Amino acid sequence: MAVPYVHMLQSATVLRKSNLYLSHYGCGKFNGKRGRPHVAFASIQQPDRNISIDPKVELLLDSVKWDNKGLAVAIAQNVDTGAILMQGFANRDALATTISSRKATFYSRSRSTLWTKGETSNNFINIQDVFLDCDHDSIIYLGKPDGPTCHTGSETCYYTSVFDSLTEQEAKGSRLALTSLYALESTISQRKAELAERETGKPSWTKRLLLDHNLLCSKIREEADELCQTLENNEDKSRVASEMADVLYHAMVLLGKREVKVEDVLEVLRKRFSQSGIEEKRSRASQKSEQH
Amino acid sequence: MAVPYVHMLQSATVLRKSNLYLSHYGCGKFNGKRGRPHVAFASIQQPDRNISIDPKVELLLDSVKWDNKGLAVAIAQNVDTGAILMQGFANRDALATTISSRKATFYSRSRSTLWTKGETSNNFINIQDVFLDCDHDSIIYLGKPDGPTCHTGSETCYYTSVFDSLTEQEAKGSRLALTSLYALESTISQRKAELAERETGKPSWTKRLLLDHNLLCSKIREEADELCQTLENNEDKSRVASEMADVLYHAMVLLGKREVKVEDVLEVLRKRFSQSGIEEKRSRASQKSEQH
What is this structure's pTM? Predict the structure, then answer.
């Protein structure tokens, strides 16, 4: 909460929380023009209060192409893993509140009210940055979730694979929408779980690595060395990518062995490099002498 | 195109392309029941054709909670990086076409027509899997883009940071919505670009690594060794995460030096492990003897 507009927005948030927000819900295109509804509204509802909204926030809210219901799609994404956590809708107030509170906030179409993800579950999504798309009608809430996002307890709301449904004879257990790095992490974790099962035949390479620390560590050292050799010998790019894939895979087996999540590693990197939005700028200013 | 429903859906796609799809646009909730519109429709429009839609695809399409316009939000996500590429809307036909063609397809609300991303630019999004959310009213198209997704030529449509707009005195150049790994990659690439600039003061650590191959390689080997030690000495999890972060960062500087993208590394891993949807199952079946 170290940026000036946060404090300036608090007053608007207080007004909203007293259930007055409906007065300016959909105030953009609905009125045929993009006005300054907060200001006019405040002066009517609370004549004694000196409401001052940062004009930049107003401009920003005005720049969003709200639909004819005053809404835009809002997608919450995990800042470290890139996982799409959930998708909802935002109106002016939801976006303003997300910016001011740094907690992902949506407009519930069924309940006709604002809601901050986590207000009942405590699983807030802590905003690192917010992005608009090229058309300014779609929003990304880039944030760090405090816990599972889905009301079902699932990490994200996307755990129903269409292709699983279409190809499996029997309905399969849920499978999260995982991108490559996390699909690999999940495979390693699966192989680890399978170690407990009695198996016939040759164990997979991942299982052999999980079972034999010496083998795993010698492979990690060997692959790191081979990655270095791609630079030292000026090998081609596809070789660099392939050797890096080897390093990453073997190091991830070690993470799996120790039950350390890739997400935790990325959180370490994010905090070290602080590349997310204004945090980055603040850290850049204060750490100039010790920059990476 | 090795799954049976693909071929079975082709006939439906042909019908749609002859501009008949409006007859069953919004056929879900609109009719007060969830029927089998493709079949009835086909028998009326093309009585001679033996239309046979995989009942599983029909069921799947029926299971989506289309809104009162017959639409659901569809988010295209890069399967390797997790980047949200774009967001549009899908109707029944758009989802059916996405499943059958394996190219991300949307319904254009402004043009009232289906459109496959890439049909004019050739920058298709090649679908690896499709996910529904817990409410079945939001869809992820998980795919590999052939090129930039945005019509502006940007990699994704999300390049306007709200926090940049609010905090910068001057409007800043566009900045993609990057998650931690790619924010770090971008920082390294920035440091590399800055090497050309005349600088006073001590160069950053990243720049020193970029300038000195011996230093970079000795650090990669050293950090890999330290990661192994966390296993060998049974050090705590936070130490494992921290050492892995060191390995990843230094290896990424090497990637930056050689201009190899993390995305390319992840593509290698995806293809090796083939964890995306049905591909994974097919590879699992055929590679049982040499499984990872």
Answer: 0.80
